[in-house]
Amino acid sequence: MNYTAILQEIYQQISRLPVTGTVAATIPELAKVDPGKFGIHLTTIDGEDYGIGDSEEKFSIQSVSKALTVAMAFASLGERMWERVGVEPSGNPFNSLVQLEYEKGIPRNPFINAGAIVIADMLVSQLKNPKQDFLEFVRTISGSPNINYNSKVAESEKQTGFRNAALANFIKSFGNIENDVEEVLDFYFFQCAIEMTCKELAHSFFFFANEGMTRSGRQILTQSQVKRLNALMQMCGFYDESGEFTYKVGLPGKSGIGGGIAALYPKNFTVTTWSPGLNEKGNSELGMNALELLTTKTGMSIF
Amino acid sequence: MNYTAILQEIYQQISRLPVTGTVAATIPELAKVDPGKFGIHLTTIDGEDYGIGDSEEKFSIQSVSKALTVAMAFASLGERMWERVGVEPSGNPFNSLVQLEYEKGIPRNPFINAGAIVIADMLVSQLKNPKQDFLEFVRTISGSPNINYNSKVAESEKQTGFRNAALANFIKSFGNIENDVEEVLDFYFFQCAIEMTCKELAHSFFFFANEGMTRSGRQILTQSQVKRLNALMQMCGFYDESGEFTYKVGLPGKSGIGGGIAALYPKNFTVTTWSPGLNEKGNSELGMNALELLTTKTGMSIF
Amino acid sequence: MNYTAILQEIYQQISRLPVTGTVAATIPELAKVDPGKFGIHLTTIDGEDYGIGDSEEKFSIQSVSKALTVAMAFASLGERMWERVGVEPSGNPFNSLVQLEYEKGIPRNPFINAGAIVIADMLVSQLKNPKQDFLEFVRTISGSPNINYNSKVAESEKQTGFRNAALANFIKSFGNIENDVEEVLDFYFFQCAIEMTCKELAHSFFFFANEGMTRSGRQILTQSQVKRLNALMQMCGFYDESGEFTYKVGLPGKSGIGGGIAALYPKNFTVTTWSPGLNEKGNSELGMNALELLTTKTGMSIF
Amino acid sequence: MNYTAILQEIYQQISRLPVTGTVAATIPELAKVDPGKFGIHLTTIDGEDYGIGDSEEKFSIQSVSKALTVAMAFASLGERMWERVGVEPSGNPFNSLVQLEYEKGIPRNPFINAGAIVIADMLVSQLKNPKQDFLEFVRTISGSPNINYNSKVAESEKQTGFRNAALANFIKSFGNIENDVEEVLDFYFFQCAIEMTCKELAHSFFFFANEGMTRSGRQILTQSQVKRLNALMQMCGFYDESGEFTYKVGLPGKSGIGGGIAALYPKNFTVTTWSPGLNEKGNSELGMNALELLTTKTGMSIF
Question: Which one, B211, B222, D170, D238, has least CB within 10 Å?
């Protein structure tokens, strides 16, 4: 497959599209990002790298980080993780409290905010220095020791994250958060404030495509575990637009309101995009378009 | 009407009933109360007092205080208060977040927790020393200068009030709380932690029955305003059991999870009960029974 | 009280208001009604009649009929009626199916469509000739033997009443309808298609204000039963605007999408209005205004 | 892959499990089925057949038929089909009305009952003789001319299908059903009452695994279209247990309350199971177990 040519075609087609999405306004620090940015990076299972556009510029990965915290928690807790969070799509917006009430504080899945906060709580319980340990984990799987948090973004989110504070307190009221709410939210806001380039993100997700093994040969999860997390990303990775993404793109993936998307074709490649304009469901509009073009052009989808 | 005889009859009938309700368990400090307590007090529009049982023992008025904060806010803000909180029954439990999500942070009415927190926010904005000023207001309308907060109860609630913290943060995320969440909750928990006897509570509610004027002749609200708050209590005073209370008792009133109820027959009397055992809707079981007996025996209901 | 003068004042004030509501569009036959019609009629407990405007013109009473079927069912079934329908406000639109699903086919109250259909089912089980018997009942309580169904309206509703057919089938699926769905709906559509003048409607509701006794001295319900139905109308008579009506008007009442409202002040009067323009909640806009003027001018509300 | 040995292993493991699920009770005719039945059939892309147990016994395919009606509608209507039905998982039980109300009569996806009824309506509009034409379609894709409806089952469902009648009327009230409700339901009940063996069902689903082409070489859908329907099955094929099935099995599939499941591994095989005992979500308990064993033993899942 001539990925260089394909990425170029996609880049040109995307460049011709109007920038219609809106940059995330809920986090003041993120609202400053240039909406015209666009990058795409693809890493094959053989380790070849293909990038175009702003693919080596750092951006805030935000909720894409949820796939990484879930992997870290799954590696240490295994299946008993699912006693505290489900594996079903929510059918509701990413920050909804409604289902949580009907379902007694057990979030539907780890990719909506409620679920990611419960995962954050698990890691806060498990890790000695949660923020530092998670950062080390990300540096290891990506092979990029210079990845870091943007603490201005984390603080910005802390100042305005009332909805997440509501979620965390609500879950705590059902007994499904063990640690102090402030501490859990602090970790959660930092996890979301990690910055990476498209390339670094594609490398970080490599083990999801490579049966659990990173580019440097480290086995993070078993093959069976990775299949399960990929399945979960497929079902729930794009909030209440997961069906649309699966229908059009047909690859497991995870989006973030920083405008990033990471997706993967098991045993073939990982692919990441960055375009800050979001559609009304909170997913990167051009990023989704670009990935639809990719699977249309290559015929490479899991279905 | 021979109220002495009627109250005695009620007292005897209630005494024969088994104590089936459960004392509020969500607030540790309240869980210690003796479930066998029962008091009832009636104050006529002419100022006569009739009490029986534990009617002169202090208890935590909890949500009964919501009627008093609403009155205080209404007196200073008038009708524009309703831009931030509705006047419709919620049809949901007292601490539900579901409706709040669908209705964008505007609570259905001021008697569910969400609404009372918005009212608390209004008072925090309006008053110089919110906690002290509200206490003075309560002392004035009741004529009892020794009424006070139980700060142990307030602190106990603060430690465990995750659901209320969730509500406050959630409302703040919609922009319907002006002040700092902590400050609003601090006021709210103190307001709920006021302690009164049945007698003091009946005196406090006197102005609702007396066209807006307290026992000492102070006009708190206009006649029209008091009618409106009475209407609101009728519709929403007992959470999602308001219909049941209206159906069986037929008087406006407000309950609290401390086991207290204050009700009134406009231009006739106020009546209060205290029995800590709550039914599954969070209302005092024997208190509701006692008031049903009262309107059945006297035929005095507003319908 | 000089009701003649008061009604005239109201009539003039209402006449100056723009006709902003919209005539019910869901039932084709009703959509033809002149939106400019307005009538008001008040009958005192002493039997005096005061009417103005189009108060002696027939209109389709629609959901106002629900108060009459409930009374008829209550008279024969008593309290066990409430095993199949609740007494709580719904907090939802009149034709919502949501609550019905969560609450397993037990409608919240008899004044939303779901509840009225269950009441219709009870009457179909109880009565020999349901449509004829109910018509006789209405003629008796109103004292107007010429009251009748408009079968064109009933048929029109049958052709387009998919939402009601959905409700009836849904309730049947929970086992809370005994008879054939078609038969129950046929009765329900006819009950709604009764036509009356404001005057006839005020006379029909007389027994609600008169401790259960009609103008001709017939005891329909006990005093206690009538109090309970009045309480229920107060809580639930205006769908999810019941709180607003109670807050502003302070009288028990029932509205219909034909633009009619019947309300009452126990032991004092019944009052009816007709104006076909509905607000977005499905209640007559000018009718509600007129009744608010009435209680403001007279100070006569139950609170 | 030695499928003979694998199916035998699975068969033995499943045979040792207790029969805990319950046979569908909502349709009287189905309730008579022997709960001890169990069959499994696998057809490879090369056309090899592997079956074991009761795999050649007829059963009622029920909702498995929804995948076939969707394919037929998609073939003739293409993407504009999605104006009337969505592609998102519902997060709710198969026969829920709640979402339909919030989303104005547009069902979330074509695999919940509401969505399948809309698809049935499309086919009733498109086909000359809907029931006969659909039967011909099924006979063609399966290559089994003796496949037929069980009209006793269809009639049984018609007598008791109040929930489906509620759904259809509800959707009609939003204008999203074009034909007569009775006619649409008649087609829907017949579509569900088709009977097949596991083998016939595996053959019918062959084109989903084979890029749109049936075993006899007929192109039903394009490769891209088939990918999209497979994606949809993955997201929504098991009601509110779709996440669980995807997590554990990792193949697109569709279940029915007759106890059947059809699943497929694109470009590899189709596999069907039949075991009438359903779990509380309405999916075949042992069927799901068997398929989990299959992907665990073979490592053949799409993730």
Answer: B222
pLDDT at A115: 96
Q: Where are the alpha helices (DSSP H) in C179-299?
A: 181-192, 198-204, 206-209, 223-236, 242-248, 285-298
Domain annotation for chain C: domains and CATH numbers: 3-298 (3.40.710.10)
Average pLDDT in the C91-118 region? Answer: 85
Test D169 with C181 for CB contact under 8 angstroms. Answer: no
Q: Which residues contact B299 (CB under 8 A, 6 or more apart)?
A: C223
Residues of A in contact with D234 (CB under 8 A): 234-235, 246, 303
- Asked if A43 and A270 touch (Cβ cutoff 8 Å), the reply is yes
pLDDT at D91 over 80: no
User: What's the pLDDT score for residue C93?
Assistant: 67
CB pairs under 8 A between A and B: 54
Range with the largest mean pLDDT of A17-21, B208-212, D236-240: B208-212
CB neighbour class for C270 (10 Å; exposed up to 12, middle 13-18, buried from 19): buried
Buried b (16+ CB within 10 A) or exposed e, B118-153: bbbbbbbeebeebbeebbebbbbbbebeebebbeeb
Spatial contact of A147 and A195, defined as CB atoms under 8 Å apart: yes
**Regions of chain A where pLDDT drops below 70:** 93-95
User: Does the pLDDT of residue D257 top 70, yes or no?
Assistant: yes
The model's confidence at residue B253, banded by pLDDT at 50, 70 and 90, is: very high
Question: How many Cα atoms are found within 13 Å in the side-chain-facing hemisphere of A270?
Answer: 26
Instruction: Please tell me which chains touch A, using 3 or more CB pairs under 8 Å as the contact test.
Output: B, D
For residue C99, what is the nearest residue in chain D, using CA coordinates?
Answer: D98
Residue in D95, D99, D101, D180 to test binding to C, most C beta-carbons within 10 Å: D101
Residues of B in contact with C89 (CB under 8 A): 88-89, 91, 235, 242-243
Residues C137-149 have a mean pLDDT of 97
CA–CA separation, B54 and B38 (whole Å): 5
Contact D98 C96 (CB under 8 A): no
Chain A residues with CB-CB distance to B170 below 8 A: 97, 162-163, 166, 170
Rounded alpha-carbon distances, angstroms, from residue B132 to B69, B183, C240: 13, 14, 38
**Calpha distance B205→A8 (Å, rounded):** 75
Taking an 8 Å cut-off on Cβ atoms, the answer to whether A170 and B181 are in contact is no
Beta carbons of C87 and B244 less than 8 Å apart: yes
Q: Decide if D303 and A230 are in contact by the 8 Å CB cutoff.
A: yes
Closest to C171 measured CA to CA, from C99, C232, C89: C99
Cβ distance A91 to D92 less than 8 Å, yes or no, reads: yes
